[in-house]
TrEMBL record:
<protein>
    <submittedName>
        <fullName>Uncharacterized protein</fullName>
    </submittedName>
</protein>
Amino acid sequence: MRTIKELSITGFKLLPSAKPVLFHGSTVRKTVTDHLWRKKLRPVILEQQGTKCSICKWIPASNEEIRHLHLHEVEKYDFINKVCHLIDIQLICRKCHSFQHIIRTQLVSTEEQWKDLIAHFISVNGCSSDIINIFDLIIAKALQLESFNETGLALLSLKERKELERQPVRFTIDPHIPFADELRKQIEKKGLLYNIEH
């Protein structure tokens, strides 16, 4: 049996990911209006990224299938200040997107849905179906490699950690993201924009 240390996943195109617990439920998408996200930003991202999944290269066969292309928020996290930095928006299919939220996906998927997702994982990465035997190890390795820098949290007292948990998540938006100024303005109106000069 291989150990997590021995396992190499560097050649994989699709890997499991998970958002840190401190930031669960907090996204730019949920903070801004649906109109800005779906009616303004989404069409620009679809045009910029070519209406295909940036991971598996799946292309919708019809206009109806375009809804299966999702905008995935690529984020970095500042644990000490509880800030989520939106650094990019990636266009990915719903199956690849399921792997970006692997812990939730495992909880809500039926057995049939999970088998379908594993088949997608195998296909995208060009690996053997035997991979299913070590999939939990792959998840653990992928999450380990994300290496969220939570070291500063360990230096906080229990009281400071509890206080941090009660605070809302704040956001920054990378200037290269379409409608960055408008996203910032909407976030600022809700008092959730983080000023980097703090």
